[in-house]
Design goal:
The chain has 401 residues and is an alpha/beta fold. The chain contains 20 helices and five strands. It has a five-stranded mixed beta sheet with strand order 3-2-1-4-5. It comes from Astyanax mexicanus. InterPro entries: RNaseH-like_sf. This is DUF4371 domain-containing protein.
Amino acid sequence: LGLILEQIGKCVLPAFRVFSLDESVDVNDIPRLAVMARYCDTTTVREELCCLQPMPDTTRGDNIATVIMQHFVERGVDMRKVFAVTTDGAPSMVGKQKGAVKLIEEKVGHPVMKLHCIIHQENLCAKMSNSDFNDVMATVAKVINFLVKRSALTHRQFRSLLEEMDSEYADLPLHLAVRWLSCGKVLERFVSCIDAIKVFLAEKGQQYPQLEDENCIVKHFFLADITGQLNELNLRLQGAGQTVLDMFETWTAFVTKLAVFSGDIASSTFRYFRHLREWSSQRNISTAEIAEYMRELETEFTNRFVDFKSSPLWVTKFAELRKQLESTPVQQHGSIALALLSVFGSTYLCEQVFSHMKSVLSPIRSCLTTDNSESCLQLKVTNYKPQIRKLSKERQGQGTH
């Protein structure tokens, strides 16, 4: 651990220009602030966890900014070199007057590019308000709670019925309302097992008129198909090493696909909607409501990604930089390009740290101090590898006599 922290102190802290922030609560109900930094190492952009700091009782913007500034000042980091910060878009992070990024910007003394996590924006788009389709998900949640969560006996009987009817899936997962995109997998299984579900509910005397209404069934099939596409986009946006430009291209490509999807629905071809295509082979489908939903979704995706396009830095600072490139030494062009490519497009790595934190700081290891748990996570997520052979050679197992 000492060698890894030494490497981070030598390479990461003096070199990084951008970082991403996210805040979560550990198993002991202590707020923890994760700070991930990117820096340029010759021709490579690297990522490292700078710190996982415990927060005071409150997590307001001034608390977050104070913790960050104190940590980096203690580590001897020149914060004036920071030019971009990516957050989850929470008010405590991006508030115009007292947000953490605004307060950091005031302390560094120059404008900072503020980006809203692209993956978080996609979740907001997917969860956009539409009462009709939200009612569909409410029905699905109620049915699944009855089948899976109400009693162990009912759950076993339902699984037995699925096996008897040779269903594609042997069970249904629970739907988590806080994670809208989790409904993709839930809906996929739900519509694939819908015949068995209707039979079982009838046997139990449960009445759900929505499952007998053809328009509601069509909405179920459509949501299963479109959330599958959204989940695919979500997976493409995840992962380490993705630049904001890569993610922006993935986003804009999906917006183009949404236009294609809308045309597919308008023509009732359903080439990209498997469940709708199978249902339409048996009966006619009214696509008016679906088409309206697709228009709203396309508009939401088109308008949502505004931080990257409208950042004043692109209009002022980087526009001036472009004019100065001709007079800038060619040797510096690579450094400038790497600096721009190092901007975080999401807080995925911070969220990954919190996922690891759940295993490192589990209920049976909850007595670990905040420093110890931070050290464990530092070892878990670092890209540096300890030189075991060198360490073993330097350490003599038995002294001379």
